[in-house]
Amino acid sequence: SGNSDSKTPGHDHRLSAGIRTALSISRQQFLKNNKIIIITCGMFEKRTTRHIMEVISQTFRVQVDHVECTLDASQFYDPARRQYNADLLLGAMIARAPKGYLKYINLFRGDLYIPILTYIFGQAQLNGPFGIVSLFRLRNELYGLPENYELMLERFTKVVIHELGHTFGLIHCTHPVCIMRSSTYVEDLDQKETRFCRDCDEKLSARMSIDL
Predict the structure, then answer these.
(1) pLDDT tens digits, residue range 95-106?
(2) Which residues, at least 6 apart from 47, have a Cβ–Cβ distance to it below 8 Å?
(3) Residue 183 near residue 162, CB atoms below 8 Å
(4) Could you confirm whether 163 is annotated as catalytic?
(5) I want to staple 182 with a disulfide (CB 3.0 to 4.6 A). Which of 119, 149, 170, 172 is the partner?
(6) Rounded to two decimals, what is the model's pTM?
(7) What is the rounded CA–CA span in Å between residue 125 and residue 131?
(8) Confidence band (pLDDT; 50, 70, 90) for 1?
(9) DSSP symbol at 93
(10) Adjacent-strand bridge partners of 63
(11) Which of 95, 96, 158, 91 is nearest to 121 (CA)?
């Protein structure tokens, strides 16, 4: 009995230390699993990625990481269309993405298409973890207008938030200025705000409480 009692404090100490280690690892994994990561493919200005990360963090109330893509996108280029196949590109990015994040959004400079559409600003897995956004058609210069960095950045940010909304299960919205309203042209983007309408915001909060 005496021997048993004398071992108890040491046993409890080892157990509590093991629990503390497990909890620490669990917390680290939890924090990582509840981060969004942006993966840039091509050269992006630091101010651009910094702004995108800040808006994502403010909008979804999570931490945001950033890594640069090492994928050779040329294999997904269609020379006849002079565009990149977004389906194939996203699939390749999914296969090599770092593990353990809540959501992944790929920022791409080239022009994207999917077989059923002439071009896309971006696409995402509905209620899944991955999305991709293209900067290409968001630049004023493409439409014969003067360069406008601030407007391009605003459009880019809107598309990123829109596609992330899809990854959280939000579908297109009919509210005139909701970020989840469908956009075919840059003029559609310019009419929207960089925020969710009340209905979409409530749905997002409900979805995030499940995902988080």
Answers:
(1) 988 999 999 999
(2) none
(3) yes
(4) yes
(5) 172
(6) 0.83
(7) 6
(8) very low
(9) H
(10) 35
(11) 158
Choosing from 68, 141, 163, 193, which is the catalytic residue?
163
Burial of residue 51 (CB within 10 Å: 0-12, 13-18, 19+) is middle
Q: What would the pLDDT profile of 171-182 be if each residue is shown by its tens digit?
A: 999 999 999 999
| Angstrom distance (rounded) from CA 137 to CA 156 | 10
Q: How far apart are CA 112 and CA 131, in angstroms?
A: 13
Q: Which residue's structure tokens are 């990149």?
A: 84
- How far apart (Å, rounded) are the C-alpha atoms in residues 15 and 1? 21
Cα 50 from Cα 62, distance rounded (Å): 15
For residue 121, the 8-state DSSP code is S
> Which amino acid makes up residue 110?
G
If phi over 0 gives left and psi between -120 and 50 gives alpha, with beta otherwise, what is residue 79? alpha
